[in-house]
Write a structure and sequence with these properties.
115 residues, mainly alpha
Length: 115
């Protein structure tokens, strides 16, 4: 029986990244055109940086990466520092879907208190 090493799996996963980056860039351009116009770096570079930042917080699926992009586009690239609840949620040991769900609830609570 043949087995694939961890290094081989990582190499295969990286081959999928450029198409994902293109898809994520198109998504961002379509959903957040004003945000894209205001970027101070090329969109694909921003998408790649955002992808690796999300990976640091355990985001693995394309769905989770797109949600992370949403948060950055809606609340700002610095939302993890700007909102005191954001970074602790993202640094928790919860799985990525739970983190994103908790982040959603925290933003709703935050804005419901403010307005």
């Amino acid at each position: 029986m043949l087995t694939i090493s961890k290094q081989q799996m990582e190499a295969l996963a990286k081959r999928k990244l450029p198409p994902f980056f293109s898809m994520a860039a198109s998504y961002t351009e379509n959903e957040f055109p004003d945000y894209v116009k205001a970027l101070k770096q090329p969109l694909l570079e921003w998408v790649e940086h955002t992808y690796y930042e999300a990976r640091e917080y355990g985001m693995e699926s394309q769905r989770d990466h797109c949600k992370f992009i949403n948060y950055k586009c809606i609340f700002g690239d610095d939302f993890l520092d700007k909102y005191d609840f954001a970074r602790p949620i993202m640094q928790s040991t919860d799985n990525s879907r739970i983190k994103l769900s908790k982040l959603n609830v925290a933003f709703k609570d935050h804005f419901n208190r403010k307005y």
